[in-house]
Amino acid sequence: MSYKPPRVLIIPGLHDSGPAHWQTWLQGQYRDARRVTQRDPSKPELERWAERIQRTLEVAGDGEWLAVAHSFGCLALARHLAEHADSPIREALFVAPAEPDKFGLAEALPHHRLPRRSRLLASSNDPWMSAASAARWAHRWGASYSNLGAVGHINAEAGFGPLPAAKSWVDAARARHAAEHRPRHAEFREWAFAI
Predict the structure, then answer these.
(1) What is the separation of C-alpha 113 from the centre of its chain, rounded to a whole number of angstroms?
(2) Record's superkingdom (predicted)?
(3) Is the pLDDT confidence value at 186 over 80?
(4) pLDDT tens per residue across span 114-170
(5) Cα Rg for the chain, rounded, in angstroms?
(6) What is the DSSP letter of 47?
(7) What are the DSSP calls for 57-125, one per residue?
(8) Is the entire prediction scored with pTM above 0.85?
(9) Count of C-beta atoms within a 10 Å radius of residue 131
(10) Could you give the CA distance from residue 55 to residue 58 in angstroms, rounded to a whole number?
(11) Residues 52, 36: contact at Cβ < 8 Å?
């Protein structure tokens, strides 16, 4: 069986991520990337959004995934990972999560380490979540944390078409995955020098 790198799963926030958004740019970088499309992206319904992630994965077929979520999509991804221990999502990138308290959802989210390697990127002046709150959620979820500085909500309105940090994360995660799937023992032809 030939090696298949994990595919990229884009999980937008409220109102989806338009053509100028970095998530749309990132999706365009990987031909096998998929996007979770909510039936009504203007209605933040945590359970329905998390279920939509699950359905998207089921329809996409076998294989592992690297999930890249933004804003309310981060909350849906955290909920999905907490509910599905067998999720094919291998690693998760949370970018500028929305503050759960703004939606009355803090208790509906996991308050423990998520079962996947993850990273959270935040901003020092995000109107949707303070840097202190982002650091707290990263700690709860066991995610590594980076504050990108005063860059707003890390979206198109804040000037983020491309987001090279997200692409670097995907490429590093794919490299880790590839390294773990290399043959553990040298093949016969590699030993030919000993003959």
Answers:
(1) 15
(2) Bacteria
(3) no
(4) 999 999 999 999 999 999 999 999 999 999 999 999 999 999 888 888 999 999 999
(5) 18
(6) H
(7) HHHH-SS-EEEEEEEHHHHHHHHHHHH-TT-SEEEEEEEEEPPGGGGT-GGGS--S--SSEEEEEE-TT
(8) yes
(9) 17
(10) 5
(11) yes
